[in-house]
Specification:
The protein is an alpha+beta fold. The chain contains two helices and nine strands; from the N terminus they run βαββββαββββ. The longest helix is centred in the first third of the chain and has 14 residues. The radius of gyration is 13 Å and the shape is globular. It starts with 5 loop residues before the first strand and ends with a strand.
């Protein structure tokens, strides 16, 4: 298991696409919050500022922020972007999750 967060090419391409539409140098933020049908849920937003406790992860020109509380839940994870019959979404493959919900947006440890 690695001690960082990885990104698929599909995720990188989608973050770049959205950032280009927004017309700024925004950060992509990944969060983990309590809630969801499995206990924790992932959140994905764009942010203009980096907080003091944020980890900045640069990968192939994409700048991703993860706050210090969320980072521990995401270590070793892979962020992907999927398109299918269910729609399009960012998805996390998290080796630390013991269970996930059917849609993949929440998990338990």
């Amino acid at each position: 298991m690695t001690n960082k967060i990885e990104f698929t090419k599909s995720a990188i391409n989608e973050i770049e696409r959205i950032t280009a539409i927004k017309g700024s140098n925004n950060y992509f933020r990944i969060t983990v919050k309590g809630g969801g049908c499995s206990g924790f849920q992932y959140g994905f937003t764009f942010d203009d500022e980096q907080a003091e406790d944020d980890a900045l992860i640069g990968h192939q020109g994409v700048r991703v922020l993860v706050d210090s509380l969320s980072y521990g839940y995401l270590v070793g994870s892979v962020l992907d972007y999927k398109e299918g019959l269910e729609g399009s979404r960012f998805a996390v493959s998290n080796p630390g999750a013991s269970t996930t919900c059917g849609c993949g947006s929440s998990f338990a440890i």
